[in-house]
Each structure stands twice: as structure tokens, then as C-alpha cells.
Amino acid sequence: MRRDTITGHAPRVWKVVRVRSGYDLTAFGGKEEWSVLKQVWIRDGSRTEREIQDAIWKDMEDTWKATSGECAEKVNEIRKRFPIIDKLMMNESYKRYFLTINTDAVGGYLTPKPAPFSGTAIRMNDSSICSFPQSTNARTRGFEQKRQYSVVFKELCTTVGRLKTLGDTMDVLEDSVIGLLLLFCAGWVHRDLSTGNIMAYETGNKLQVKICDLEYAQRFGKGEGSNEPKTGTPYFTAVDVMRGEWDDALFDTHKLSPNMDMPKFFYTYYHDLESLWWIINFIVIVRIPNPLAEHLIPFIFHNSMEVKDTRRTFPVAAQRRLSPILNSRVSFFAQDLGDLGKGIYDLANMLLGNNTLKSELNYVDMYKKFQDFFQGLSQHGTDWCRLTLGSHEK
């Protein structure tokens, strides 16, 4: 059994095999095939992971069939920029970018007991993530009725945080852009991307990305102005999401129309992509050790939703900050990640300034920038692909 988070009543994950019965532990069908059992506590009345997945599939297919309106415009733009999506939609091949659910069940209720609560739901999905001290002022919240949910996934995977080489890791992260683009097609945001839920499934001699942990996923724009606790793994959470508001210190808010107020904050596709950007930074800064980076790591990767200034400004100053601290074998990532960070921030700035954050068509460029980033890594040769990644555990 592996506990995949450090908080109480948190998800638990087991490696399991199906057997004939509780009395006959012989492998079902005579062949031992490993699967994954995950148990979580879900709010009473909330959707299960299967129900969320089914809703995403339906929204994705409905969008792809659209013949008019913004959905049709979005589909046409995606077809032009990402031809692979059209092929994936033809025979439901898109489902391979996500885990296959074999079976699931909703169980009994959690015994009522108030819990201390800091106002922030912190997820730690990968035990390979190092931990830094944090302080919170606990308060008591009302009890939310919860039920146990068990789900068995077909694929036994390796988290991207545990892959051994930089080449394999970047290949899987590159494929994750397609997975996120599929969610974009459906009109959904993930809201909890981390090194623990972008996974690699070995099929033959290839690693297939699997994006999992969809329990926090929701339709785009649904949470506008809501006061729900923040979700996400702090290391990889977008700065806006950590703050719970648009970071107007970075955005050119003076470009807003004179009579226009700052839009209410809500989770956007941009925030999922910023999480992916933080994951790439984490891999090259922390998992390829360099003594020069040790002083910076606690200020940008820390187990708290408190936003330090170093982290807040890091995306727009990434090249300058990364150049002196990256291992020489991956020094080229400084400019590439710097350009990517600035590029997506400029696009987000434009959407905020033009009050077009809800116009989905405007986000396509961001996905293209990530695809270009990964494809551009090939110009730096192949030696870096063989680099062995450290565990970075303390």
C-alpha cells in the first residue's frame, strides 16, 4: 500500500490483482494482471471519478460535433493547429490519455468529526516531493458529510515524478499537452496537475501519458467568484490560484477599459498550463541537482499556499533566475523556459486586459506554445535525454 498524501482521510492507493473470490485467491482468469485500487473520501452528492470522466467524454464529443457558434470555431482552430486531435476523436482514441476505470463503488459515510482547517486544501500526490516547513493558523470548520469512494484502474503506471531519465520525463510531459488539450476540447479544467498525477504507462517500448485524479476537475468558468477552498499541490499551483485573485502586480491592469472593473477571479485553462510550466521547472531545477540552486528552491517550491515574492515574479524573470543555477548539461532550458513563461504570461495579460478570459478560442495559442517548447528541445541534441534524474528526497 502507498499513501499518496500526508493529510488525514486522504486518498490511499494499492497495487491489486483480481482474484476469483474472497475464499479463492487464485488470479481471475488464471492470469495475474496488476491493477490499481484508489480509495478517497468524496463529499456527499458530489460526482465520482467515473461520472466526471463520462461527463468529460460526452462534452468532448458534443463539442467536436458542433457545426456553429464558438464551439465550432474552437474545433476548427484546433484542427488547424493540432491535426492529431482529429484522429483521436475519430475512434475514441482520446481515452488512452486517461486512466481506464475497471470498476468503482461508493461506500459508507465518514463518522462526523470537525477537523482543523487552514482554509487551503493541500494535495501532495507524489511522495518523491521534498517537504519544507510551513505554518498555518488552524480554525475549525463545519463538518461536511463524506462517503468512501473506491475505484479500480486498469493501468499500473509510474508517476512522472519517478521516471528515471530526463528524456522519458520530457516525452511524457510533451504528451500531457495533448491530454490537456483534450480537456480543453471538452471545456474542462483539471485544477490539480502535479508530478503525481501525470503518469506514464508502459505499452511495448513506448510510454503513454495518463492524466489522472480528475476529482477536482470542473467545467471551465464554473467556479467564478466562488469561495471554495483552494485545491492543488502547492509546488505546482499557479500563482493566481494560490492568491485566489488575479495578480494585478504583474498584469498591465492599466490597459483595462476605463469603465471596466477587474473581472472576478476564476480558474482558467491558463492555470492548468502554468502548473505544467512549474512541473518542468521542478524537474530541471530540483531533480538535476546543482549546489547553486539550493538557496532558491525553498522560495519557489514550498509546501504552502503562501505566495513568496520570488515565486510570484519567477515566471516573468525565469531566464534571468535560471541561467546561473541550472546544471550546465541543461543550461539551454533557461532561455526556453524563460521564453515559455513570458509567452504564456503575455497571453494571459492580453486576455485580462481585453476582458476576454472566457473566450475559449483565445487559449489555443497557449497550448501551441507548449507544443513548440517541447518540439524545440530536439535542437539541443540528444545527450541531455540520457541524464539520470535524482530522487531529491531529504
TrEMBL record:
It comes from the Eukaryota. Gene3D superfamilies: Transferase(Phosphotransferase) domain 1 (1.10.510.10). Residues 3-284 form the Fungal-type protein kinase domain. InterPro entries: Kinase-like_dom_sf, Pkinase_fungal. SUPFAM superfamilies: Protein kinase-like (PK-like) (SSF56112). This is Fungal-type protein kinase domain-containing protein. It comes from Panaeolus cyanescens.
